[in-house]
Amino acid sequence: xxxxxxxxxxxxxxxxxxxxxxxxxxxxxxxxxxxxxxxxxxxxxxxxxxxxxxxxxxxxxxxxxxxxxxxxxxxxxxxxxxxxxxxxxxxxxxxxxxxxxxxxxxxxxxxxxxxxxxxxxxxxxxxxxxxxxxxxxxxxxxxxxxxxxxxxxxxxxxxxxxxxxxxxxxxxxxxxxxxx
Length: 180
What we know:
- This protein has 9 helices and no strands.
- The chain is an all-alpha fold.
- The termini are far apart.
């Protein structure tokens, strides 16, 4: 899997530096490869002993969806169970609850969808922001490419809650400030 992923990224890189890059196809390839990385890490967590901490996020998102609002008592009453540690991911849990309530998704499916959308949105806005700044689609493709393979992002794909969402929100706000 690692060799195949590296090979795909090399193909994408050589397409970007070629004489006539096709921006739509290359951007789609970056999205699909990033999606494969996110899904492989997110779905692989269930194979670990103890199931990581996705069950805690699952429970918090499902609880918010059940009662319809963020309950501070939920996080403070379960200090012995470790729920207090999950209070810093409140936006992540709200987005999971939105997926459950509005779209009728199961909590575990909503958890994966929220993770995928946050990562892909940040890659897209890095592309748009760089295209606007430098007026060069090649620079925009390179920045989206290198953003998607940054070590901090690759490590954060496993737990996308705070780091990826914070960087995605920052990039979106930066884009809105400069473009609007």
